[in-house]
């Protein structure tokens, strides 16, 4: 696995662990960080990892885009932002969304701005009780990005999403769990144990089917019922022809735990 400037990649058995690694900046994101994330995801896909866990180093998950020290000198900052999104941030997010293995995010502190969006790309989102989510864009006169306007309404519904985006207020982890924004809120000291346990459980599951489930759910949100059913039928064809299905049936008949291979 390659060395990176802004992230760390480790392998814990079948789980790849991606850690945002700018703790001195609360892991504030840069275009370079998202280029590295995209490159790392390519390597992870080729590595044979069967689940991905994303977290942040130090006291925060990600404090949003790093705008500290930026000066504009009469230039159009919106044009630069658009370019950064289209060339760096968005390709990284889309690569994560299209990954064919399950993703767990472990939110260990502030998840703000594009960091909030990154956290919500997890299939299972576990947050420390002291953490919070913040759509901070409006507080500096910007609009949400990184897919936030798509992600939040799918999880928390339109009214709560508009409240979060328009008021720019913190959503504590416990409240995020209540409104369906995240999967679980746990005590701080239990965060990584819980997230790793879930990631390993997924990695030992039928990851071919799990990968298709994450794509089916995301795709179905902009399809008709009939279209979603057609995609399910095709995915079921692939799953039904897999070694994992044969193993699952045999294990059921033999009354033993299945040993899935993701094939």
| Order of strands across the main sheet | 1-2-3-4-6-9
Tell me the radius of gyration: 19 Å
CATH architecture of the largest domain: Alpha-Beta Complex
Shape from CA axes?
A: globular
Write down how many β-strands occur, each being a DSSP E stretch of 2 or more residues. 9
- What is the CATH topology of the largest domain? 2-enoyl-CoA Hydratase, Chain A, domain 1
Oligomer: single chain
CATH superfamily of the largest domain: 2-enoyl-CoA Hydratase, Chain A, domain 1
> Per DSSP, what share of the residues sits in E-state strands of 2 or more residues?
5-15%
How many helices? The count is 10
Care to give the gist of this entry?
The chain has 263 residues and is α/β, with parallel strands linked by helices.
What order do the helices and strands come in, and which of them pair?
Elements: E1 7-12, E2 15-20, H1 31-47, E3 51-56, H2 77-97, E4 103-107, E5 110-112, H3 114-120, E6 124-128, E7 132-134, H4 148-156, H5 158-167, E8 171-172, H6 173-178, E9 184-186, H7 191-203, H8 207-220, H9 225-240, H10 243-254
Parallel strand pairs: 2-3, 3-4, 4-6, 5-7, 6-9
Antiparallel strand pairs: 1-2, 7-8
Explain what the structure shows.
This protein is an alpha/beta fold. It has 2 domains: 7-203, 2-enoyl-CoA Hydratase, Chain A, domain 1 (Alpha-Beta Complex), CATH 3.90.226; 207-254, Lyase 2-enoyl-coa Hydratase, Chain  A, domain 2 (Orthogonal Bundle). The protein is 48% helix and 15% strand. The protein has 10 helices and 9 strands. It has helices spanning 31-47, 77-97, 114-120, 148-156, 158-167, 173-178, 191-203, 207-220, 225-240, 243-254; strands at 7-12, 15-20, 51-56, 103-107, 110-112, 124-128, 132-134, 171-172, 184-186. The strands form 2 sheets. It has a 6-stranded mixed sheet with strand order 1-2-3-4-6-9, sandwiched between helices. Helix 1 (31-47) packs parallel to helix 2 and helix 8 (207-220) packs antiparallel against helix 9 (225-240). It is globular, with a radius of gyration of 19 Å. The two termini are 23 Å apart. The mean pLDDT is 92.
């Amino acid at each position: 696995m390659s060395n990176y400037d802004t992230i760390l990649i480790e392998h814990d058995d079948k789980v790849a662990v991606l850690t945002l690694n700018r703790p001195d900046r609360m892991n504030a994101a840069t275009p370079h960080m998202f280029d590295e994330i995209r490159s790392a995801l390519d390597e992870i896909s080729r590595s044979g990892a069967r689940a991905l866990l994303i977290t942040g180093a130090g006291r925060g998950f990600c404090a949003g885009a790093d705008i500290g020290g930026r000066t504009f000198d009469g230039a159009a900052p919106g044009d630069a932002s658009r370019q950064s999104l289209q060339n760096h941030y968005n390709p990284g997010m889309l690569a994560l969304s299209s990954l064919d293995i399950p993703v767990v995010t472990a939110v260990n502190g502030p998840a703000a701005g594009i960091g909030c969006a990154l956290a919500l790309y997890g299939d299972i989102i576990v947050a420390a009780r002291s953490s919070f989510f913040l759509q901070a864009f409006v507080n500096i006169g910007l609009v949400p990005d990184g897919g936030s306007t798509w992600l939040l309404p799918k999880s928390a519904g339109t009214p709560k999403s508009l409240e979060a985006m328009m008021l720019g207020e913190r959503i504590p982890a416990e409240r995020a769990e209540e409104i369906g924004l995240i999967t679980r809120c746990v005590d701080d000291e239990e965060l990584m144990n819980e997230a790793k346990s879930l990631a390993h459980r997924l990695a030992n599951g039928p990851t071919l089917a799990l990968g298709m489930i994450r794509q089916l759910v995301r795709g179905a949100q902009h399809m008709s019922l009939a279209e979603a059913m057609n995609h399910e039928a095709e995915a079921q064809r692939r799953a039904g022809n897999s070694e994992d299905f044969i193993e699952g049936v045999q294990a059921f008949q033999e009354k033993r735990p299945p040993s899935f291979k993701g094939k």
